[in-house]
């Protein structure tokens, strides 16, 4: 059961809060002084962060210098394999997008993973069932304001 506080305990709580740095409810706060205080603390921590970043960089260099050539080659190989796998996954996504006519938004919905192509095929089938097939426009792929001239078409036909 919760204990009832005596009147002396209730009076001591605000005094403890003020002693711990909290402001009393009836005390006026100098906000400019508070802002200066926090700004100074921020600058102090920024300087500390820069010093720590410098030390971390030096430590990374030290660790790198302690590695054997074999370890360096193994890590380089692992990085190259990771980049290759990411490139292959990206290529597979683009190939599936082209194969099934999916947009970038559709690809984003599909995510990534082993069964990506199957999910792409399923999504394409669902979209095809919902969206009516439209005939290709004669101006599709032509920039606005640029008409195809008869001279151009005649030149293409003559070159054949």
TrEMBL record:
Residues 1-30, 39-58 are annotated as: Disordered. It comes from the Bacteria. The keyword Coiled coil applies. Residues 39-49 have a biased composition (Basic and acidic residues). Residues 63-97 form a coiled coil. Keywords: Coiled coil. This is DUF4355 domain-containing protein.
């Amino acid at each position: 059961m919760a204990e009832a506080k005596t009147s002396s305990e209730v009076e001591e709580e605000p005094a403890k809060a003020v002693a711990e740095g909290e402001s009393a409810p009836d005390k006026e706060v100098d906000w400019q002084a508070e802002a200066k205080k926090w700004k100074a603390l921020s600058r102090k921590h920024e300087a500390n962060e820069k010093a720590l970043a410098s030390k971390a960089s030096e430590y990374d260099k030290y660790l790198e210098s302690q590695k054997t050539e074999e370890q360096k080659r193994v890590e380089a190989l692992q990085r190259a394999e990771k980049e290759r796998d990411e490139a292959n996954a990206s290529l597979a996504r683009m190939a599936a997008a082209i194969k099934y006519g999916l947009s970038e938004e559709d690809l984003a919905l599909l995510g990534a993973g082993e069964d990506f192509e199957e999910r792409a095929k399923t999504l394409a089938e669902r979209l095809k069932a919902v969206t009516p097939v439209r005939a290709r426009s004669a101006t599709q792929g032509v920039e606005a304001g640029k008409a195809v001239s008869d001279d151009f078409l005649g030149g293409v036909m003559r070159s054949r």
